[in-house]
Specification:
By secondary structure, the protein is α+β, with helices and mostly antiparallel strands. It has 17 helices and 17 strands. The protein has an 11-stranded mixed beta sheet, sandwiched between helices. A two-stranded antiparallel ribbon has the order 4-5. The protein has a two-stranded antiparallel ribbon with strand order 6-7. α11 runs antiparallel to α13 and α11 packs across α14.
Length: 499
Amino acid sequence: MTSLSLTALSAVELRRRIGTKEISPVELLEACIERIEAVNPAVNAIAAKAYGRAREEAKVAEAAVLRGDALGRLHGLPVGVKDLQDTEGVLTTHGSPLYRSHVPARDSAQIALVRAAGAIVTAKTNVPEFGAGANSRNPVWGATGNPFNPTRIAGGSSGGSAAALACDMLPICTGSDTGGSLRIPAAICGVVGFRPSPGLVPMDGRQLGWTPISVLGPMGRTVADTRMLFAAQVGVDSRDPLSQPINPDAIVASRPADLGRLRVAWTTDFGQCPVSAEIRSVMRKRMDEMRHLFLTVDEVAFDFGEADRCFDVVRAQNFLARYRDTYERDREQLGPNIRANYEIGAAMSLADAAWAHAEQTRIFRRFQETFQDYDLVMAPTTPVSPFPWSELYLAELEGAPLKNYYHWLALTYVITLATNPSIALPCGVDDHGMPFGLQVVGRFGGDIELLDASEAMERAFAGVSGLGRPTPDPAILSTPTADLKSIVTAAPDKSLAER
């Protein structure tokens, strides 16, 4: 088997073959490294590399298989870790010059769980600076291009993870999501990104521990791959006050739902989000194409109140908590998106904060009423086809200026405010031949049920022309894209970047 055909296999199949000794962790790791070196120059998805340590861990993993040891869920699988998440002994820059040489002394809670499940941290994946925004470009590593057109954005902030998966560089990757950072890059790179309910994947580094808008979660090329990683990420951790238990065995026990019994509510814009006429048209076409799969499919009106203003406040509080000292010491060390977020928060009052939390509660309660009549809610994940990565963000839509640099993410951040689990599923391509991602939202706390329904949808989509998962053109990935690193101010020290 060639390295490409090996890396193109699903994570579930790769783990099965490791367990049956059909392939070795060493063989798989080398295939992934070969693939990264061959195609990463086209998209720049990979930040720091951990090849040396990964090779040693792969040998240990291989020896465990040969001895007949009990193997973890992810035993021997190479994993890409988002460069916002601490990895012991591996350069973690957050996409910021402030952390250009930062090598954490320990893993974050979820990475420790992933390693304990047998995964091998092979590389860090690219992000926007400090994860602010949905364009994965920063002054340390440069920009990540979309695997379907490297001049376009790969989304963010988990853009490097999504692009690496779409290019078959790695079988699974981690991500995180505040305003859509798991869902958006997955949608526009043609992979799966799952935003779980808050507290299921521990966040030990969150400054405002009681705020539920930011979560960690999994990404994969299929729903089954994604839920396998998710099962390894979950766990109760006393450092996360929102931490709550869930049975990991139940997560991976696939029970594809009977779609014919499910009632679907759908929308193009949740009643207020900016969405292009093109994406509205694609969404309507997709719903017509899949209507026969479900019991009922109804276009529904939603009331998300003052969601934009609410998200402004709730989001800004997190930036105030994290960046106050740096901003007051030297604001120029922070990128424009970080400064903008901090300054929005600094101008707010306690009354603003109290209003925002009350408004989020109202949004939450109204949205849950939808599930009295429906099992799933569907919408587009992004409002436009991917734009050039040279544009830091989408400033206007069809001639109308947007409110701020993240307003174009409203389709996902309104669901963030509701806190329901949600997933981006590949669903064909848009009118420009770029991946179209369907955002599917489940009941409050219904993570496993949503994954079951999503797996059934994925299988059904594969049998309907135009609904299946698209894959990049190999010719595109064979051509290096030199200008993706053009915004880098100075390269990280090679000895750190390639540990």
